[in-house]
Amino acid sequence: MIIRLQQEEWEKAYLSPYASLSCNSAGRDREEEPCDLRPVYQRDRDRILHSKSFRRMKHKTQVFLAPQGDHYRTRLTHTLEVSQIARTISRALRLNEDLTEAIALGHDLGHTPFGHAGERTLDKICPFGFKHYEQSVRVVEILEKNGQGLNLTREVRDGIMNHSTARMPSTMEGKVVRLADKIAYINHDIDDAIRGHIISEEQIPEEFTNILGHSLKERLNTLIHDVIEKSMDQPDIRMSSEIESAMHGLRQYMFQSVYTNPVAKGEEGKAQKIIQFLYEYYCNDPGRLPREFLERIWASECPLEIAVCDYIAGMTDQYCVDSFTEICVPKSWKIL
User: Which among 57, 195, 237, 256 could disulfide-bond with 175, CB atoms 3.0 to 4.6 Å apart, if both were Cys?
Assistant: First the structure.
């Protein structure tokens, strides 16, 4: 018997009635022969994990720009923590872990260098706007594999597109990732801010810590347990009003104390100027773009401005700085 079919039968027998079954997927844009080993969502997870854009996230900012230390989160470690939290919740609720993990691993593939500062800059200067969740879908549909994309299932792409606060995925697994993303970044950003002496545990308002806990471990434990308990055997992913209110309050505290803190964010202005310069440079001289982006423009597949955003958004922090340096900083002259 084909192993994939065994896995699909197991899903039917074990998973919650609210779970997304692999055999019921709405499919891919391009039909493919099924894998003999892996159901469709596991296959999607593997494709994301092996993609170049996934590997580049290890050199992209999460919150702190170019931190001096090996233990601060990057966009990649944030993604892995989201995946771990989401899988824990999905397993407890008997949802599809493969779909959950695929969405979690792919949700930030389109993020710019320098975190949300880079995203805000491109969104401001590009006439078509820029949103990292839309770019993440663009990465898996078009940009990966030299323009072929990863040809992921519709459920995975839906979860990636709709993981942000103002949006809502169509699957339970996508809703788990949407909430796990917030749980992860609020808590690990607190951990990084404490490590960087931006705040201390004692400075976090007690109105939140008395409910959620007084350490990273306690807060994660409280939040994850609450989601599981309130969502068990329910057709939606929920939190209790008290816990949800405390989490939102803690998030607001982070915006006031960390995300807009001049100590933590002092270098962001320079990063934004670099991105704006590169955007204007390539728009004014598109011949400097790599050939794969030029070919997309020549084929009328996208406007110049979007191709430039594609190129810049795919850069790591260091590659972005190096590109700026290569253009702007004169090289030392020497006799050959």
Answer: 237
Asked whether 326 and 308 are in contact (CB, 8 A), the reply is no
Contact call for residues 122 and 313 (beta carbons, < 8 A): yes
Domains within the chain, CATH numbers bracketed: 3-18+28-259 (1.10.3210.10), 268-328 (no CATH)
Those residues whose C-beta lies under 8 Å from the C-beta of residue 140, and which sit 6 or more positions away, are: 48, 51, 106, 109, 149, 150, 152, 156, 157, 160
Model confidence pLDDT, tens digit, residues 61-110: 888 776 667 888 999 999 999 999 999 999 999 999 999 999 999 999 99
- 111-149 exposure pattern, b = at least 16 Cβ within 10 A, e = fewer: bbbbbbbbbbbbbebbeeebebbebbbbbbbbbbeeeeb
Question: In this structure, what token pair is assigned to residue 60?
Answer: 């992209």
Q: Please tell me the distance from the alpha carbon of residue 317 to that of residue 113, in angstroms, as a whole number.
A: 5
> For the whole model, what pTM was predicted?
0.95
